[in-house]
Amino acid sequence: MYQFAYHRPGSLAEAEKLFSAAEDPKFMSGGQTLIPTLKQRLASPSDIIDLGGLKDLAGISVADGVVTIGAATRHADVASSAEVRKAIPALADLAGWIGDPLVRHRGTIGGSIANADPSADYPAAVVALNATVHTTRRTIAADDFFTGMFETALHTGEIVTKIAFPVAAQAAYEKFRNPASRYAMVGVFVARTAGGVRVAVTGAAPSVFRQEAMEAALGKSFTPDAVAGIKVSPDGLNADLHASAEYRAHLVTVMAKRAVARANG
Amino acid sequence: MTATGIGASPRRKEDFRFITGKGNYTDDINRAGQTFACFVRSPHAHATIGRIDAAAALAMPGVVAVLTGQDMADDGIGGLICGWMVHSKDGSPMKAGPHPALAQGKVRYCGDCVAVVIAESYAQAKDAAEAVAVDYHPLAAVVDAKAALGPDAPLVHDEIAHNMVFDWELGNYKETVDAFTAAAKVVSLDIVNNRLIPNAMEPRAAIGDYDSGTGIHTLYTTSQNPHVARLVLSAFIGIAPEHKLRVIAPDVGGGFGSKIFIYAEETVCVWAARRVGRPVKWTGERSESFLSDAHGRDHHTHAALALDAGGRITGLRVKTIANLGAYLSTFASSVPTYLYATLLSGQYDIPAIYAEVQGVYTHTAPVDAYRGAGRPEATFVVERIVEEAARQLGEDPAEFRRRNFIRSFPHQTPVIMAYDIGDYEASLDKAMQLIDYDGFPGRRRASEAAGKRRGIGLSTYIEACGIAPSAAVGSLGAGVGLWESAEVRVNPTGSVEVLTGSHSHGQGHETTFAQLVSERLGVPLENVEIVHGDTDKVQFGMGTYGSRSGAVGMSAIAKALDKVEAKAKKIAAHLMEAAPGDIEFKDGRFTVAGTDKSLTFPEVSLAAYVGHKFPTSEIEPGLKESAFYDPLNFTFPAGCHICEVEIDPDTGVVRIERFVAVDDFGVIINPMIVEGQVHGGIAQGIGQALLEHGIYSEDGQLLTGSFMDYTMPRAGDLPSFQLGLTTTRCPSNPLGMKGCGEAGAIAAPPAVINAITDALQIRDFAMPATPERVWRAANAVALAAE
Amino acid sequence: MTAVSMTVNGKSVSADVEPRTLLVEYLRENQRLTGTHVGCDTSQCGACVVHVDGVAVKSCTVLAVQAEGASVVTIEGLAKDGKLHPVQEAFREHHGLQCGFCTPGMIMTAVDMIRRHPEGLDEATIRAELEGNICRCTGYHNIVRAIEAASAAMGAKEAAA
Question: Which residue of B has its CA nearest to C33?
Answer without folding.
Answer: B21
